[in-house]
Description:
- 2 copies of one chain form a homodimer.
- Chain A has 388 residues and is α/β, with parallel strands linked by helices.
- In chain A, 34% of the residues lie in helices and 15% in strands.
- Chain A contains 12 helices and 14 strands.
- In chain A, helix 5 (194-208) packs antiparallel against helix 6 (226-240).
- The longest helix of chain A is centred in the last third of the chain and has 16 residues, at 268-283.
- The first copy, chain A, is globular, with a radius of gyration of 21 Å.
- Mean pLDDT of chain A is 95; it is low at 1-12.
- Chains A and B meet through helix 5, helix 6, helix 7, helix 8 and helix 9 of A and helix 5, helix 6, helix 7, helix 8 and helix 9 of B.
Amino acid sequence: MTTALQTPASRRTGSVGIVQPQLFRCDHPITLQCGKTLPHYELVYETYGTLNTAKSNAVLICHALSGHHHAAGFHSKDDKKPGWWDACIGPGKAIDTDRYFVVSLNNLGGCHGSTGPSSVNPDTNKPYGPDFPIVTVRDWVNSQHTLMQHLQVPHWAAVVGGSLGGMQAMQWAIDYPDLVRNAVVIAAAPKLSAQNIAFNEVARKAILSDPDFREGHYYEHNTYPKIGLSLARMLGHITYLSDAAMREKFGRELRDGAKSFDFDVEFQVESYLNYQGEVFSKNFDANTYLLMTRALDYFDPAEEYDHDLRKALAEAKANFLVMSFTTDWRFSPERSQEIVQALLAARKRVSYADIECPQGHDSFLLDVPRYTSLFKAYMNSIELDGES
Amino acid sequence: MTTALQTPASRRTGSVGIVQPQLFRCDHPITLQCGKTLPHYELVYETYGTLNTAKSNAVLICHALSGHHHAAGFHSKDDKKPGWWDACIGPGKAIDTDRYFVVSLNNLGGCHGSTGPSSVNPDTNKPYGPDFPIVTVRDWVNSQHTLMQHLQVPHWAAVVGGSLGGMQAMQWAIDYPDLVRNAVVIAAAPKLSAQNIAFNEVARKAILSDPDFREGHYYEHNTYPKIGLSLARMLGHITYLSDAAMREKFGRELRDGAKSFDFDVEFQVESYLNYQGEVFSKNFDANTYLLMTRALDYFDPAEEYDHDLRKALAEAKANFLVMSFTTDWRFSPERSQEIVQALLAARKRVSYADIECPQGHDSFLLDVPRYTSLFKAYMNSIELDGES
C-alpha cells in the first residue's frame, strides 16, 4: 500500500499533511508590560514548508482569541479535523507552503502547550492559575521574536493574522519595523470599542462568578468553570456570526418541531450554542480565556503615540494587506478602514479589500473564494530575497 | 405655600403629576396558550387623563421586557424618577393626557404587582416560582382585554408600545380588529431573529445556572440569582445601546486612569454595566425575566397564517404608525420595514418613519425631538368619536 492510498482523498491536495508540534524553551527571562517577569517559558509551535537558503521566506501566523499553534494539516492519519486555518495554509493555498516557511505558535499564556496559567509556577510547584501575569499583544510580539531568533529567521516575509491575530501583525510592524516585510491584518480593529469591551466583560464575569472557578485555582480542585466558560463561548459565538448567517443556519426552527412552553433548549440556535459552549469549556482553559480577553481590551498601539494611529505606524516599513468582511459586526469594515486611513496618512503601502461575505467575523477562517484568491494573489506577489 | 411651589420645576410642565397604582382582580379563569389555566389573577395598572363621555379616547400602553405599569408621573412628591415613558406621556406630550385617557399595566407574569411567579400559588400557598405558566404575547393581549372590559373602555383609540410592547400592539390589531383604531409599533420586529433568540438563551442560561436560582424556588430560600440576573441584564443592556452610543458615553476610558493588569472592573463601560446589572438584579424577578424572554422568542403572529405576515394582518382594521431608529441593532429598521411591507401588501393604512438617532434600541424611551414630534403629530391627528 502506498502512502497516498492511506491518506484520505481530501488530504491529498492542498494539505501540509501530518505535522508535529515542537517545543521551544526560552531560558532567558521575559519582562512583561505589566511589570512582572517570567524566569523562563516554553512556546509550542508548528512549521509548514521549508526555510529557503536565503532565509527570506518565513511567514508568522498569529492566532486569535481561542486559537493555537495547530493552524494547518493533521496530527495523525486518523485525525479528522485539520488545523484551524487549513483553508488558507498549504500547498497552492493563499499562504503557499510550497513557497513559504510557515511558523505558527501557541501564544504565551495559552492553554495548548505554551507556558500559561495551567503550567507549573516554579515558585510554588503548583499551576500558576490566577497568578499568571496578564500578557499583552506587545508581550506576545516580544516572545514571538525570541522564537524567531531561535529559528534563525532574520526577517518575516509576512506576519499574518485574523482578529486578535491581525492586531499582533500590526504590533509587529510597529515594534520591529526592520523585521517585517509585509503585515496582513484581517478582520481586525485598531483597538476595541466600548461595545467590544462590554462583551468581554460579560464573558469574564460569567467565568469569574462560576463557583467552580474557585478564584482561578480550579486545577487543584479537579474541576473547571464549565458553566461560566460555556456562557462566555456562547456569547462570543454570537458575535462571530452575522445575523444573516444565523438566520440562514438556524432560522427559528424548533428542535422537536413544537413549542415546549418551558425554558429547556428548544430552538435549533439554542441547541447549537449550548453544544458549542460545552465542547469549548472542556477544551479551553478559563484562565487563558480571561487573559486573552484582557489582551484584546488593552490593545491600543496608538495609545503611546498621542492616540494617533498614523504616528504609531509612522516607522513601520512593512507593506500592508488589510481585509474586512461586509457582515462582520464584531470588527466591522469601518474599523479596518480606520487602519487603512492611518496607513495612508502615514504614507505606507496598503492594499485593502472589503469582502462581501455573509458569514460575519468568522469569515476569515473560511474558504471564501473571493477572500482566499485575493489573499493568495497578495502573498504570491511578495518578492523574496534570493528567489529567482 | 402653593402646590406649584412645592413641586420641582421639571414636574410643573408636561407631567401627569402624582399617580396612584390601582389593582384589578379578575375572578374568571384565563386559559393560556400553553394549555394551563390560572383560576384568577390580578393586574396592577395606572391611568393618566380622563375617559371622555363618548369613551373614545382610551390609549393602552404595552410595556417591554423589563417594563411595568408605572409609565408616567411620580408616585410621591419625593419621587426622583418619573415613570419609564414620561418622555412620551403627559400634558402636551406625544400621548397627550389632556386629550387621552391612558391605561398602563404590568403584564401577567410580571413582578411589579400583577400576578406572576412571585405571587402565591393558590394550590400550594407558596410562590409559584417556576410553576408559573409560560405566558405569550397573545395571553397578554387577552388579559389586557379583560382589564379593558373592567374599565368599560369600548375600544382603544390606540394601542401603543415599543420593542416587546410594539409586538403586543400588533397582536391586538390582529386578535381584536374591532377594538383597536390605531396601533403604534415602535422599535419592534415581526418575530425574533436567530440572533435575538441566541442572546435570550445566553441570558436564560446565566439565570438558570446560577446556584442561587435554586430551580426557581429562590423565594423560599430567601435568596435570588444575583449574578445570573446581573449577567442577563448586562448582556441585554449591550443590545439596547448602539455601538456609537457606547463609544460616545464611555469610549475606552479607564475608571482610575491607568491599567490595573488584572480582571477587576477598570474600563468605565465595565463599571457602568456591572452597576446596571446589580441594580436590576435587586429590583426584578428572575422568573419573570425568563418568562418575558420566552414570550419574545415565541412571538410570531404569522406562524398560524402560513408564515405570511400579510395574511396575519389581513383582518386588522387599525391604522398603523411604525417607527424605527437608524442605530437600533436589536430590532433594526429592516425588521420594522418587514412589518410595513406586510401592512402595505395587506392594503392597510400605515405611516412609517425611520428616525435618525444615535442611541440604538433604547431611543424609543428617550426624548428625541424628531421622534416625539412625529409621534405627537400622529397621535394628535387621530379623530376621536364624540370629539368636536
